[in-house]
Amino acid sequence: MLNFGPTVQRDGHAWAGLSGSHGTLTTFGAGQNSPHLSVLGLRGVPTPPWECAATLAAVSVPALAADPARPVQTLQLPGITAPRITDRFTFQERDLLLRDGISTFRTNDAGQVFIERVVTTYQTSPGGAEDISYLDVETLKTLAFLRYDLRTMISLRFPRHKLADDGTAFARGQNVVTPGTLRAEIIARFLQWEALGLVEGVDQFKSGIIVVRNGSDPNRVDALLPPDLVNQFRVLAAQIEFIL
């Protein structure tokens, strides 16, 4: 599977469909742990699993490319034949599937199939602790966009620049960049991400960002960015206290 390694910088995602009983699906999901794999759980669906996977990808990928943080929930999966009512998962069953890294769908009265939630199979950290960091596919795609956009911005603005410490008295017009300049540029880029609805909390970002020269390589700048990604609105928990 692909990874987010700094020397790799390739983004990819695998989309799969798996047909089986609820137990089969949860067992499979519990045995996986990849942020780059989404599996659509199917029971009694006449459409072959590989076609369901292709449809899920064909619907999700363009939507995430247009706005990686906008949830793909409620998007229709055309061409997928709905299972019989007796084969449709209950709310409780779907909730358990999601907790085990299996994506779910819903069906309306007309037999149309819609995405309920696309999750990855990532469930635990490398240390074995429960971890929801990469649970939702929107998180992965938002991070991929931020990485690519930041890298593109830096390469376009500072393609052949020299590097100096903050406070260096170089003449105006010199192609010199400092850690402070890079920090300001990254914060400015964060504001653009915020305007796009991808991140929030600029004050937290400003207080947490670190941009310094590397201690052993004088040609390198190390940056730590702590963006607070926007979340997806999935649940409204309301209590009605009525009066007669």
Q: Work out the radius of gyration.
A: 22 Å
pLDDT averaged over residues: 95
Global geometry = elongated
How are the strands of the largest sheet arranged?
Answer: 1-2-3-4
| Helical proportion, percent range | 25-40%
Count of β-strands = 10
Low-confidence stretches: none
Sheet with the most strands, sense and barrel status: 4 strands, mixed
The SSE order reads EHEHHEEHEEHEHEEE
Q: How many domains make up the coordinates?
A: 2
- Rounded to the nearest angstrom, the distance between the terminal CA atoms is 59 Å
Structural class: alpha/beta
| Count of runs of 4 or more consecutive helical residues | 6
Portion in beta strands:
15-25%
Question: Would you mind describing this structure in some detail?
Answer:
The protein is an alpha/beta fold and 244 residues long. It folds into two domains: 14-136, no CATH class; 158-229, no CATH class. The chain is 33% helix and 16% strand. It contains six helices and ten strands, in the order E-H-E-H-H-E-E-H-E-E-H-E-H-E-E-E. The strands form four sheets. The protein has a four-stranded mixed sheet. A two-stranded parallel sheet has the order 5-6. Helix 4 (137-157) packs across helix 5. The model has no long low-confidence stretch (mean pLDDT 95).
